[in-house]
Structure formats: structure tokens, C-alpha cells
Amino acid sequence: MAQQEPEELLEMSSDTWDILEEHNLQPLWEIEDDMGNALEDPEAEIWKWEDMQEAIDAIERDVPISELPPGFQRRVAVPINTAHAISNSIYVGVQTVSPGETAPSHRHGANALRFTIDGHEDMKTVVAGEEFPMKDNDLITTPQWEWHDHVNESDETAAWLDVLDLPLVLDSLNAKNTFEYHELERQPVTKSQGYWASQYGRGRAQEDLQGDDIPGPFDGIREPTPPYRFQWDNMVESLHQRSDNNDPNPHDGYSLAYVNPATGEPPLFPTMSFRAQLMQEETDPHFHNMTEVFFVIEGEGATHVGDKALEWGKWDTFIVPPDEIHHHEPDGEATLLAMTDRPVYEAFNLYAEATPSS
Ligand SMILES: [Fe+2]
Ligand SMILES: [Fe+2]
């Protein structure tokens, strides 16, 4: 007897369809192929700094921060690769604040950080009562629910990379009620510069390390990330120490993860991890289900993603989408900031990474 075609097996009477429709039900086999397609897949793509600069200069000429509509009230050019961001988990944007301008104080449930592109000692991001100077390549955290505003008291426009988990919080979790304005444009500065480093830097107060407060192996991800400024001078010196004394990681070169200062361990945020990587030679190919977004701090080269070559130079931003085989080919020495959503995959036991078999 000939085998029946699957379509014949699945045929249902119009009465059955009517019953399902009346009760807002669907058979699984009718919808399973559409699952996983609600969000657009990101492409391997690069945003060149010269193009970003043309865009941020143009919107700075046209739009003062004070005239922005209600919302985040930030003057930002956002690379778009999925619905509203560069990826489905990580958002990046280049923000500018002109001399004398203030980006007003607000707070939100999304985790954020600033990576300074063109900074100044008198460009301050104010987080949780402390003014943090934004010098070139400094990374400054803005953890969940901490008030933050940006104040430019220098005579030069400042620019930096904003990195947030907005697509995850707003588009995937649909967590809309997680934003609040401060009653003042600028939050009161209640702490001296260096306060947060004194709480979470190389020394910890003895009374903070008693009994249940001692970070344990399962406590890391629940320990809130404090406001913190990672000064680039320290990071780049440690990267060069590694290149002088250690073997490189085959896929990322000499790399250092930014740690949560509260635990001394990565990830920096529960949803995103960050590392600085120094590369001096071509890396080996690999692939993984996390997304990697890169910002070029110094140097030139190419990242090969599938059969696409992303040619990069200083201050370019590019994305390696999930599951794409990739490797880096620096032209001499190059330094990158890598941003990933790996903590989300690890939290759900979903993280996977492999090297190609041939
Ligand atoms: Fe913000
Ligand atoms: Fe990778």
C-alpha cells in the first residue's frame, strides 16, 4: 500500500478549523515554521566612522538636545540592522553633547555603558551622584535604575558609544514601564570624584565582606553592577602585559574581560559582557550562538564573516551575527572593544561555541 502524503494525514474538516478559530487556537504544525521569525535576523555589517561622523555632525548642527521630543532626550545616531538596533539583544549608538549642553537626567531598567570616543576631562557623565570624567577610551557603567545625565563643560563636542540591552528589554521582554525622568535637569552631585571607585576598586571595606555578603559562586549574576569608570590607561597597559607574557586566545587575541567590580568576575552586566582585545596576528575561525558587536579602538584590518569581509579602521563599528563562522585579520596591531550577549545564553544554559570541522 502506498504511503500517504503528510498533507493528506493533516487534513481537517472546516468544522474543526471553525472550532479552533472561535477559541483562538492553532494547531502546532501550522505555526511551528514561523516560530523564531518574529524578529529580523541581523546581517554581518559595518558602520564606517567617516559615515557616522558625517551623520552625527549633521544632526548636531540641526538639533539641540533641549529641543528633542519627550523620550530618552539623547542626540544619538543609531546603527540599524534589525528592527530598531544593530542586533536583537545589543543596541549601540553614537551620542554627542556640544559644549555647554546637558543631556537631562533620567534612569531606566536597561543596563547601559559609555565607551568614550572623543572625550575630555571636563565632559562628565554623572551617575548615582558622582561626576565621571570621560577621557578617550574610558568605559563608564550606568547600571539599571541609576540616575544619569551628561554635562559638557569643555569647549569641544564630545562623542561616545552608548551600549544598552534595549532590544532585549523593550522588544523581546516588552518591558515598557521601566523609565523615569528626574525632577531636575541635572541630578545633584552628592559624592566626590572617586567615590564609587573607593567602594568597588582594588580595596573593599571589611564590613562589606561579612557573612552572607561574601560573594559566592552562585551570587555573581545577582550582585548589582556598580557605577564605575574603567580608565583606558590601566586596561591598555594590562593588554600589553599579556602580549609580553601570555599566549593569545586563538579566536580573540590577547583579551581582557571587563569585570563586575562588585564581584571581580565577568560579566559586567547580567545581560552583556565586554572585553578589550589586542590582536597582532590572524585569529582562528570559530562560531557561536551569541552576538558579537565590535568597536575598533585602534588599528586596521578585516573580519571575515562567512564569505563576507568587513574591512575596518579606527572607530568603525561592526557586528558578527549568531552562528556565523568568523575570524579576524589585523593589519599589524589592532585593539577592539567586543560586546556580547553571552550572559543571557549562559543564564538559560543555551550557550554554544565551536570551531569549523575543516
Ligand atoms: Fe539613559
Ligand atoms: Fe567570536
From TrEMBL:
Keyword Cell membrane in annotation: no
Domain Cupin type-2 positions: 94-163, 281-335
GO molecular function: dioxygenase activity
SUPFAM superfamilies, sorted: RmlC-like cupins
Domain of life where this protein originates: Archaea
Keyword line: Dioxygenase, Oxidoreductase
Protein name: Gentisate 1,2-dioxygenase
Organism: Halobellus clavatus
